[in-house]
């Protein structure tokens, strides 16, 4: 599979996630601006745990009529919100155009990271199971929570921003496999 295909698929999924973000912003505004990054981490955790529950029990198990795909989209969008909050800090509502600009900046940073890592790892993600992406996202969440408990201090590890970007990328890889495989 050529790298161009990955970038095209990645762009299609980021467009989908942005569209959902934009529509939710019309419904709710930027009410998420009140949240601290740690609260957003917990929201992402809820979505990842639900995905794992659905993977283990089947989507027929669900009481709520939303499948795995919307949860991965939620992870992408909550991670973007968390990156914005790390940059700006919790605060007042943002004008929609400013929120979208910040969202695009967060997604562009994650996309740039994906391109570099994907080059180095030679598309290894294409051979992974979607359930592995879920497990890695859960692991990254536990790492993030630990770093947050340590007030953002690490000795040799990347910070929470890198973990949020990795979670965006793993969620997008899962969505690519769900949509294009």
Summarize the structure.
With about 180 residues, this protein is an all-alpha fold.
Search tags:
single chain, 181 residues, mainly alpha, 6 helices, 75% helix
Radius of gyration: 16 Å
Distance between the termini: 12 Å
Coarse morphology = globular
Helical/strand content category: mainly alpha
Order of helices and strands: HHHHHH
Global mean pLDDT: 94
| Amount of helix | over 70%
- Give the tally of β-strands: 0
Model regions low in confidence, pLDDT < 50 over at least 5 residues:
none
Strand content: under 5%
Classify the oligomer: single chain
Q: Report the sheet with the most strands, covering strand number, pairing sense and barrel closure.
A: none
Helix count from the secondary structure assignment: 6
Written account of the structure:
The protein is an all-alpha fold. It has six helices and no strands. It has helices at residues 3-28, 37-57, 68-88, 96-121, 130-149, 160-180. Helix 5 packs antiparallel against helix 6 (160-180). The longest helix has 26 residues, at 3-28.
